[in-house]
Amino acid sequence: MTPNYTPSPFNFQLARKLQVSWMVKIQLTKTKTIEIGGSGSGGSGSSAKIDLTGLELFADACEGAPAVRIARKSDGWHLTAAGSVPLPEGELPSRWEDVSRQPVWKLPKAFQSPTAALAVNSTLSSFGQASAEAILRDMAQGLTREAIPARLSGGALQPTGTSPSSRKPTLPPPGVAVSENGRRFSVKPFAEEGFHLAASLPEFQALWLSRLLPEGHRPTTSSIQVAESALMASPLLQPTFLEAKGSLLAIIVRRDAIFFAGYRNGEPVLWRRCPGVRGYEAMRDAVGKNLGVGDDLINDVLEDSLVDPRPALEPFLRPVLQQLDLARVYLTGKHHLNSGNVLLLGLPYGATHWKNMAEESLKIHVVPAKPFDGLSIGKGVDVSSGHLYLVALGAAIAAAEVEL
115-120 and 50-57: which strand pairing? Predict the structure, then answer.
């Protein structure tokens, strides 16, 4: 069975331990659709068992696809597998005509859970916070003539004009994916009135992804997400997040970007990319250039105390700390969020220096965390490069609501 509905990538109920409900539409044939619905209570207090795989496709930092398999049992959350799996043959299509070249992607046995969540890196996707007016403009614009000459409607291919529809689009209900001008949109209102979090993906890419895993074999696709939306869900099982009852500010560091994520009572109130600053690869370059050390020694300099890298780190971190302070002021003034801790996630090295410099400069408490904190690690599972699995983990966490 091929999913005809993309579950919402914004799953924040899980960490809040609240009652949740879900509805999944599955296209059985061209004309027959079934709906499966239910409810359950999220968090570690529930007896519901979950076993699913999260996958990140086309990640720059990894030759394969980062994959994790998580399971929730009576004693909590478990990481049962983590690794890089070979990518499917071919590339993510950039135009409708390429969808006909559909590969079949069979995962290694360790990741053959009942269901899987796919998080995709696509140059044609979008994710971020915006006003309702800005989202409606994006929905009305659609894709370019070269990108899509056809669209999906009611489970079947329908021709469409090369210009956007004259019908005025309306915001979809929270978490319900809708099609507009060749795009699949999902929108969630922010706690702040007038602002929303929106994700969109070309319809032909969503179709290609939904058909990627073989029908009748484990796993089946339960969720298709934009990589950044999965990234925003990655802190939700962190002990610091749960201890703060879902109200905190997180710094999420990636290879080529740094993000600030704000949550209040488990709901998103801020998602912002740090302007003008790249991620940990740029930090390595700055340390190597300013200290004159080779690539093979940079990690040692950032982790050991023999050489003080702070003079080299300061020019890189200064704008990050300035933006962090602005994020704190915004959350305090707009959302009355005065969290005592700032979660630091995704740094493979140098986290102690970030913590010390942020605490000295801003007088805040920074909690460096590893991606799999809060999960029991299965025997033989290698978590030494956990930063590579943040998106895959977030995709699995965000999709877990479908399994409740």
Answer: parallel
